[in-house]
Amino acid sequence: MTYCVGLLLDEGLVMLADTRTNAGMDNISVFAKLQVFHTPGERMISIMTAGNLAISQAVVNLIQDGLADPETGAIQTIHNVPTMFKAAALIGEAVRWVHKNHADAMRKQDVGFDVSILLGGQIAGRTLRLFNIYAAGNFIEATRDTPFLQIGEHKYGKPILDRAVNSSTTLTDGVKLALISMDSTLRSNLSVGLPLDLLVYKRDELVAPVQRRICENDDYFLMIRERWSSALREAHRNIPAPDWALD
Amino acid sequence: MTYCVGLLLDEGLVMLADTRTNAGMDNISVFAKLQVFHTPGERMISIMTAGNLAISQAVVNLIQDGLADPETGAIQTIHNVPTMFKAAALIGEAVRWVHKNHADAMRKQDVGFDVSILLGGQIAGRTLRLFNIYAAGNFIEATRDTPFLQIGEHKYGKPILDRAVNSSTTLTDGVKLALISMDSTLRSNLSVGLPLDLLVYKRDELVAPVQRRICENDDYFLMIRERWSSALREAHRNIPAPDWALD
Question: Which of B20, B185, B224, B245 has the largest CB neighbor count within 10 A?
Answer without folding.
Answer: B185
